[in-house]
Amino acid sequence: MAWKYPPNLIKGDYVVDSIAINENYLSVVDETSGYLNEHNFSATDGYPFGRPQLASGYALRLFYAHKDSPSNANDVADETSFDILPKQTPSKANWVTIRTTPSFQTFGDEGMTLTFTSRGGPTWLCASFTLHNHNTGVRRSVAFGVGFDSPDPYFQKTKGFGFNCALELDGSILNESLIGTGNITNDNFVDDLNTVASPLKVNPKGGGGIHGAMNAIVLDAIMDLEPGQHTVRIAIQNLLSSNGTGVDVIAVSSREMFALELTS
């Protein structure tokens, strides 16, 4: 019940300004002015209504979108081999392919965008997904690195400068949700070892954003929304168009998004 206690200590020998006094009265004034919360309603049946009369989950409204795209869907088990990475193409797995372009890109695929009508107020926007950057069709014939099928997964180390991932709200990137590098104009991108003429390029590039073959990403931000319709999208930037080659897959597999209105 901390709301009952004033945030500012006021005593006879204190010098107090009007801001401190106003803050101490704010919680009481809010309630008497029609700002409703858990302190205005009884937890049992009462007048004009109690919580049992409300539908389940009424206090918080949730908008949700998802798409399950497992990385091993439709794979066939083999007693003499085991999978390192999925053997199927992204289109068969309902993955969303990331283009080789340097700017942020968004997608209209299921689970990559969420449109909802908001009552207005603070809203938690969140998205989670698996980000892929690796070869397809990689398998091992036996364990412990002996007898690889082509291509050898050791050479999956070859990466670009990584990715930036963020939420886009109504066409604008939310910087507070960004994971990766915040300023590519000042970052030190190192590519010395990958400039030599070699078909292998086992050395990863340095600097930049999110690296790795398969990464679990979570993006979120709490925003004060205006009442009305809003659209949230997952936005991904392929830094300097550096990720992937002709045999690589750059894609998003399983993903989900939600918008949770934090108003009662």
Compile the SSE list and pairings:
Blueprint: H1 18-32, E1 62-67, E2 82-83, E3 96-97, E4 104-105, E5 113-118, E6 121-135, E7 139-140, E8 163-169, E9 172-173, E10 214-225, E11 228-238, E12 248-261
**Rounded mean pLDDT score:** 74
Q: By helix and strand content, what is the structural category?
A: mainly beta
**Secondary-structure element series:** HEEEEEEEEEEEE
**Gyration radius, rounded:** 26 Å
Rough shape? elongated
The main β sheet shows up as: 5 strands, antiparallel
The total count of strands amounts to 12
Strand content: 25-35%
Helix content: under 10%
Distance between the termini: 17 Å
Q: How many discrete structural domains?
A: 2
Structure description:
The chain contains 1 helix and 12 strands. The protein is mainly beta. Strands 1, 3, 6, 10 and 12 form a 5-stranded antiparallel beta sheet that branches. The longest helix has 15 residues, at 18-32. The chain is elongated, with a radius of gyration of 26 Å.
Distinctive features:
264 residues; mainly beta; 5-stranded antiparallel β-sheet; 1 helix; elongated
Briefly, what is this?
With 264 residues, the chain is mostly beta strands. 6% of the residues lie in helices and 31% in strands.
